[in-house]
């Protein structure tokens, strides 16, 4: 009937309206879900930033730590003896004063002077002590009561306690007092000679370290610390060495120093917040995050929690890091389901967390895993420039990790190979897969590599081409989509010769600008290859269409 067409139109309109409303409801639901996820991310970022600010402050406070082994003399000079040094080098003939200040005695002054000027002979130490004692007697000066001579054993015991506390100035002074104490046996004297020489060397190295540190010469400080035997390095010294690397901008070396310290540190007992080992773990986690090494950051916290599971400060930070790792797992799940747009949104949320917690500059290097997610998602969406640029940055950051995980590195190269394959960059895809195979020798990667090599062979296959007079004009690639490379319209073959040549000239110019090495993403080498491919395509089409300027 006449009403049937109208009824059909109305029915179709109602169906379209229903579908539109369903789409709008779904979009609203997704927007609501996205808003909730963004709010959760912002809440995590705020709480995480608050605790990491405390850790950053503790890490920065290392700069102001006083090296306890080096005394800062401030008392009034009560006795002084002028000396002229003899020996090799610049010290020969140098005039110096040996000084005793209020609150000191001859033994402490002798030790510090001899250690500073590399005087190790026991006879010289004893002679200088006697000279200073005589000078102090002239001045009628009495040293503090705790510095009075006791038995040799008592002084040795005190010295050993100071050594354990890494206070080498106090330890050396006690060893010198032991030499002067009544009742010293020949065996004790022999042992003291060795101990005194060892402590003098440690004191001298620590003094050089502290002087370099306080002068901002951090490379010299690291060298001086390296000359110290392991038993003479305090926990604080280990941390200041890590800080010295950091102050030179060497984050990887700083993290390595912290890792070595935490590996060898005594892990028994409760770990209090102010201890160097806790500060080392929390600071190391921050450094690992800055390098984009989430797994390393987790390990820093795990070192503490394995030894002290109820360490509240570290436990809180570890939970926040786990929440962030869960965000990464959710993104990976979206990627596996090919939900690429949702993946990009989720990556943006995670990046906001990192920027809030670490700052924008640090977040740029901390988001290694996020860059890989972006690479794969953008590649699937055919945004090849963005995809390959993201993969390039991720691989660069992975190589900067302290101990790069071969599986992670191989995965990054595989994902970049996939992006290069979609971009028909077969040479680059093969090169990436060869690196992946070298990192992880698996059958799956070998299969991908064989397929990529086959495609590479087809892409690079060339044959001799002839002009219309059947003359050879050179080798040209025969399996490359030359019209696609130049982004020519689909109906180009329907146009006449003049129009074809105009389009060819116009699009070659456009593509050349598009792939300018200083402007395009993905690396200069890739841009140069794209321009070369465009030039080869233009030359072949010019010849085939008999355009002016082409080979004929």
Features:
22 helices, 552 residues, single chain, two-stranded antiparallel sheet
Describe the structure.
With 552 residues, the protein is mainly alpha-helical. The strands form two sheets. Strands 1-2 form a two-stranded antiparallel sheet. The protein has 22 helices and four strands. 34% of the residues are buried. Strand 3 (462-466) and strand 4 form a beta hairpin. The model has no long low-confidence stretch (mean pLDDT 87). It has helices at residues 3-60, 106-116, 122-138, 152-164, 168-180, 186-214, 218-226, 235-247, 251-264, 276-290, 294-307, 312-336, 340-358, 360-366, 368-380, 384-399, 406-422, 426-439, 443-459, 482-485, 497-514, 524-545; strands at residues 77-84, 95-101, 462-466, 472-477. Helix 7 (218-226) packs antiparallel against helix 8 (235-247) and helix 11 (294-307) packs antiparallel against helix 12 (312-336). The two termini are 68 Å apart.
Helix-strand blueprint:
Elements: H1 3-60, E1 77-84, E2 95-101, H2 106-116, H3 122-138, H4 152-164, H5 168-180, H6 186-214, H7 218-226, H8 235-247, H9 251-264, H10 276-290, H11 294-307, H12 312-336, H13 340-358, H14 360-366, H15 368-380, H16 384-399, H17 406-422, H18 426-439, H19 443-459, E3 462-466, E4 472-477, H20 482-485, H21 497-514, H22 524-545
Antiparallel strand pairs: 1-2, 3-4
| Helix amount | 55-70%
- The biggest beta sheet, please? 2 strands, antiparallel
Mean pLDDT: 87
Structural class given helices, strands, pairing? mainly alpha
Q: Tell me the series of helices and strands, N- to C-terminal.
A: HEEHHHHHHHHHHHHHHHHHHEEHHH
Question: How far is it from the N-terminal to the C-terminal residue, by CA?
Answer: 68 Å
Strand tally is: 4
- Number of helix segments? 22
Record the strand order, biggest sheet: 1-2
- Give the overall shape, derived from the CA principal axes: elongated
The percent range for strand residues is under 5%
CA gyration radius, whole angstroms: 37 Å
Low-pLDDT segments, ≥5 res: none
